[in-house]
Write a structure and sequence with these properties.
The protein has helices at residues 21-36, 51-62, 101-121, 152-155, 190-203, 234-239, 300-319, 334-339, and strands at 2-6, 9-13, 43-47, 66-71, 128-137, 166-168, 179-188, 207-210, 226-229, 247-248, 252-254, 262-267, 273-279, 282-286, 290-291. The chain has 360 residues and is an alpha/beta fold. A 7-stranded mixed sheet has the order 6-7-5-12-13-14-11.
Length: 360
């Protein structure tokens, strides 16, 4: 988060969130709006119409700004629409060497503000809902094996913190690990969520202009004296930020199955990790993370890989061999339903730190 002057314009940069853009959007939008409050004008432009741009626009509107979004693409054609989109505030958020206590305090405030906002959205038809997530492992403590940017130590997460998870012992679950953790998580469905934000933005007087900007000088043509840059990876070309590099994601969808109302995260027998997230538009299979790949074309091999991993996972859950007590004959069996029985809305929301090891 930073400001700079371009001639008579004030520019607020709000980008560089890694894979945590949707998760952090309301918090960083709040920080951007607070930086804008001292400006004498109440006309603002937001560049970008993804999750960060829309949340920033709404935060500005809440503070009395007249806001126009300028973007080359709108939902459903934004990068945010293609996100796995669990609430995962540390997902691929890389810690910079110059990280400071001030940054940590800013980050903590952004996470907590976003978490509070997402809780307000949950269950209100805005594409945010609670879902029970199961992860599994062969031990209950120790360092994580996957590369996910900031780890628990870097983030300040206390390894002994109660993160709202129920530990399932061997024989109490059908997953391919010694132990399984069951915990409530927040699921965001971009196809619903982003449309809702756009509808609210327009309802409160927001305007939209379809336009692409190639250089910072192009922004000088805007009428608004205050500009929030929410272009994400586009900031590398638009502002010459060479520190920005992509981590390409890709989703493979199975047909929607309403009876599958839980998500899965973990390693599968035979190697590799997978995320399984049920949504109204289908069951999303992740996690593809290709560093420094700018292409938007699907990787055919990854589609095959996700399907293969999902097949191996569900076969292991059905067979439940390797020394585990038989809990389920198939993912949809009565025994499996008993093992996965849960209340999708937690009586008490877990602490925000419980989401620091979630990937999306």
């Amino acid at each position: 988060m930073a400001t700079e002057r371009l001639d008579d314009k004030t520019l607020i940069h709000n980008y560089g969130h890694g894979g945590a853009g949707i998760s952090l959007s309301w918090g960083t939008g709040l920080l951007a709006a607070e930086l804008a409050e001292d400006h004498p004008s109440r006309q603002a432009a937001v560049i970008g119409a993804g999750a960060v741009g829309l949340a920033t626009a709404r935060q500005l509107q809440r503070r009395g700004f007249e806001v126009t979004i300028h973007a080359r693409a709108l939902p459903p054609d934004t990068t945010s629409n293609m996100a796995y989109a669990g609430f995962s505030p540390l997902s691929n958020l890389v810690s910079a060497p110059e990280r400071t206590p001030a940054f940590d305090a800013q980050f903590d405030r952004a996470v907590r503000a976003s978490y509070e906002q997402m809780q307000l959205f949950a269950g209100a038809g805005r594409g945010v809902s609670w879902v029970t997530t199961y992860t599994w492992r062969n031990r209950l403590s120790g360092p994580r094996q996957e590369d996910s940017g900031l780890d628990e130590t870097e983030s300040g997460l206390d390894p002994g913190l109660d993160v709202g998870a129920t530990v399932l012992q061997p024989g109490e679950h059908p997953f391919p690990g010694t132990y399984a953790l069951r915990r409530p998580t927040l699921r965001i469905e971009p196809s619903i969520y982003l449309d809702q934000l756009m509808e609210e933005f327009l309802l409160f007087g927001g305007r939209v202009r379809i336009r692409d900007y190639g250089t910072p000088r192009d922004l000088m043509s805007l009428d608004e004296p205050l500009i929030a840059n929410c272009t994400g990876l586009g900031s590398r070309a638009l502002f010459g930020d060479e520190t920005m590099s992509p981590i390409k994601g890709q989703l493979t969808f199975l047909a929607p199955q309403p009876e599958i109302d839980y998500s899965l995260e973990g390693s599968v027998p035979g190697g590799g990790r997978i995320g399984v997230l049920p949504r109204s538009d289908g069951i999303a299979l992740g996690h593809v993370m290709e560093r420094d790949d700018w292409s938007l074309e699907p990787i055919e091999e990854e589609i095959t890989t996700r399907l293969d991993r999902a097949g191996r996972l569900f076969a292991a859950m059905a067979d439940h061999t390797s020394g585990f007590s038989p809990v389920a004959a198939a993912p949809w069996s009565p025994a499996m339903r008993d093992a996965l029985e849960h209340d999708p809305v937690p009586a008490t929301p877990p602490p925000v730190e419980s989401f620091y090891d979630i990937e999306s």
